[in-house]
Amino acid sequence: MIQIATSPATTTLTITGDLDLAERDQFPEITARVVGLRRQLLVLDMCGVTFMDSTGAAFLISLADAGRRRGGATVLRGCDERDLFVLEVCGALDLFRIDTDHACARDDASA
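Structure for STAS domain-containing protein, as requested:
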């Protein structure tokens, strides 16, 4: 599931569950909505992501690229090492700022 929240300068996507081929049908609509909001900063909250494949990575890359073309920035928050590796293998890690200060609020009951 992907939820969109906005403030005057920021769009935040909170992503939970798998970000993969099975979810690709929703990516074009979400991309259009985010691009249409025209905020300078896009925050991708990945704390709830359980799995990301190259299709999910391509979705994140397209969002970051669209923001960069408008002079904006994209921040990855709560992204684990596995997901960072996927983006690195895709050659796209430099499109993102990594929020290294964020600590995800993990639900210990589900861990």
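The chain has one domain: 2-99.
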